[in-house]
Structures are given as C-alpha cells and as structure tokens.
Amino acid sequence: MGKIKLSDIRTTAPKKLDKEKIKAETREILQELDELQNLLYAEHKHSILLVVQGMDASGKDGVIKNVTGTLNPQGVTVHSFKTPTKEETDHDFLWRVHQQAPGKGMIQVFNRSHYEDILIQRVHKWIDEKTAFKRMDAINDFEKLLAVHNSTQILKFYLHVSREAQQQRLVERTEDPRKMWKYNENDLAEAKLWDKYMDAYEDAFNNCNYIPWIIVPADHNWYKEYIVALTLRDTLKSLKMKYPRLKK
Predict the structure, then answer these.
(1) Cα separation, 218 vs 52, whole angstroms
(2) How far is 184 from 96, CA to CA, in rounded Å?
(3) Using one digit for the tens of pLDDT, what is the confidence trace for 32-65?
(4) Burial class (CB in 10 A: 0-12, 13-18, 19+), 152
(5) Would you call 99 helix, strand, or coil by DSSP?
(6) 47 near 106, Cβ under 8 Å?
C-alpha cells in the first residue's frame, strides 16, 4: 500500500450513490449491530476499540451518537481525550490511554485519542520531532499489544472533511442557536493551521499503521455514518461469535 496523501482522497460521497437508499441501508445495519453487540457482550472473548479522529467540525460527535447511540449502553463506553491533567502529564503519554482500553465484551469509543499526542502537540511544537517519532513507535507497540494479547479489534477512522465544509460548519456554530454550545474561539485559530495538521496527520497514517487507517469522506454526514457503521458491522461478523451454552 502506498503512502496516504489526503489531498488525493475525496471528502464527498460518490456521486453515483442514492442518499435515501444508503440511509435506509444504514438503518438496517444499525439493527444488525444491536444483535452483534449482544453477542460480543455475551461471548466475552473480544473487544472493540473505535478511534475517531478528525479536524474540528469533521463530525466526530455526530457519527459516534448516530452509530453507537442505539446500542445497549451497558456495553459501550465513549471517552473524549482533552487537555491532560497534571497527574496525566506526570506519567508517560499512553498512561491515561491504557486505562480506557476496552475490556472483553465491550465497545470502547475514543473521541480523539492517543493520536493527539503526535498531532496538536507536534503542530504547536510542544514536542520536538525526535519525540514525535518515538511516540509513533510507542503507539504501534501499544496497538499491537491490544490486538495480539487482548483480542481487541481496533478500527481507526479519520473523518476527512474538506477545508470549505469545515469553515461552513464553524460559522454555523456562531449563528445556529442549537450549535452555539459547540463554539470554541480556538477553533478558528486552529483552522488556520490546516496545512500543518494535514502534514501531521499524514505522518500519523504512514507511520502508525500496524493497524491500518480508514479514511472516511466526511462532507456528507449520511455517507460518513454509513461507512463507520458498515465497517463496525463487518468487523463484528468476521469474529464468528456464538452465544455461550450451558455446561452439561
């Protein structure tokens, strides 16, 4: 597989797709997910880690809500990684992340993730380049540990929004009363660093790839939700899970 270059990847749904047909298919997939999650929880052999990354206003909250919102809340946990606390910065950068790794039978969702430690920290030069690439090695080892030694299926989604769609959504946060709560004055400043973030993301994709990334066109919410739900459904089905039987 060649190196990922975001400028070569579309941010919109394929034109040939029928929006209403895809939305109907997504609803069917979500019904399947309900049973598959029940199997995952009951069999208690595997776990799922969904990593959801993307620029501000790429739709991370929406896709998490609309794909996992109908599942049994006893089997799904969502954790948002924000500015590290003093206790967290006193430890290695993966310390706070490992505590959120999913247990058997669980679906864990990371809204942003350990990748922030080689994205925003690198863009703002809070860490040097040597440290950034050492962290990439550590991330590969961490994800291999979860996958190989704990039967964790890791799905890493990058919500690939266009610069134009991002700007439109950020403006909506200043005008739409239902979206104003999302407004953060730092978002516009971060948006100006777009090119630096694209470079940092591409390095993350091309160096932290023990678990491959899934680049999801994110300008159309209906298509983005379809891709994430479909990938999760197919991953769960591939596990060939069975309900435990009574011991005789």
Answers:
(1) 12
(2) 24
(3) 999 999 999 999 999 999 999 999 999 999 999 9
(4) buried
(5) coil
(6) yes
